[in-house]
Request: fold
Amino acid sequence: MTAGNGPGRETWSRLLAQLDDPPVGTVAEALADARDLDVGGAYDRVEEALAEGVLVEEDDGSAFGAVRVAEEDETPDSAASEGRGGGSPGGDPQGETAETGVRTWGELDFSRIDRERWAPAQIERDAWMCRKESKAPYAPWTDADAPVECNHEDHGETTTCAECSHHAGYKWGSDGSREHVHTDHETAREWAGMVPSLSSDLVYIQREADPFAFVDGDDVRDPETGEIHPAFEAILEHLGVTYADVSTSGGGVHAVYRGEIPLDGVPEAKFTIDTEPWGSNDDPPAVEIYDGKHVCIATGDHVAGSGTEVTEWDDEALAEILRANGYEEREEVAPTPTSTSRTTNRRRPAPTRRPTTFAIYSARSTGSTRNASASGRSSANGHAGVGPSSRCGGPPTTAGPQITSTTGFGTTPATTVGMAVPRSWLRSTPGSSTTPEPSRATSGGRPSSRRSTTSASSGFRSRCSTAPAARAAPKSMVATRARSPRRSTRAAHGTPPGG
Reply:
């Protein structure tokens, strides 16, 4: 993988092997076709690879030169990257003023927020817009008839806002948006404060060539207490600590990383982590992950302690999380090179998801059960974190958390929230002394958020020999936490769903 967000060396090799001494333009068109990118974004990735030395452009006597994959011992031409700034397509600002956060997400209190703090690495890029209260990106500084591409359904064919009645200020991801619509962070903030119809939040337009990725947790935070859903915290724990902010409603959390989705053919991921609402939210919590072009709401309501540094996520961990939630790697379709400037709007089919398989256990001390939902998940009034399946030697079934396995679309009895994490992470290694313990206090029947651990059998994993190699779960993932109680006043507050 390159330092940015472009294809790796092997991907470039496969792509260029099908082209005959291609110039930059031909490579960009082939990449756009292979990865379903707009041509502008594909050009950015080619330029980024040239700047980093992954690709080399040689003079072959033709008018445009030829692109090839650099040898392992070749170094990038210093002139290629000279003068690239944060606003340039190939630039990769590191955020010189960024602050490092805590070591683990479990150390944070998600109810503590620092207002008006954005990630410096994104501030340094000219990729900002304001937004309407409807969350639609909008650039009030843009002329309505600016020469920005418009492919509205009203048109029989693509045109520009200069030739139609649609406002260019809403075109966040069209050809010409970068030049006429996107702006710097300071300008976007000034306009957001001047126009009453705009939200105080901003929008960061994540481009295909950006090194960034966006993890959007919807309804994962109780807007009244700040309590975070344990499944979402567990996912973040494995990806790593990075800059994060809280959504406008207070029910969502956004985490910004560096990286690309590690499964080929998976452009984005969406999955739920519970079947019941968390805390005072109205909808069940869900997670969305994007590494390409996307409208990223940036509230500036920074989660205190997470730091302002945008860190690289753990590729292996993310791959396991996605597989556990039904995403499979797809073989990339070979591109069809063209010598013309013609491009295609053809969309590739979304990746096929297989039934989800993961392990869960109950926060209840009773023996009652429910059927798993159609998605392979289940729910309960309490939540105790994550644990191994019962057939792999979990806690005793007479008391404490009842461990159950859900597989595919069956109706396996289950009594708790289905955890969106790989089964292999939920196994203890021989000699491990950590296993889940009940999280619901017996006194008065009130949920307790106190975390605790207890001893596990040293022969625990030996009964799971068919499973992948074990990966020890962090304490924050194994530790227990009760579900925040539902609030009867949420309807009166009129709080919209998070995210």
In short: The chain has a mean pLDDT of 69.
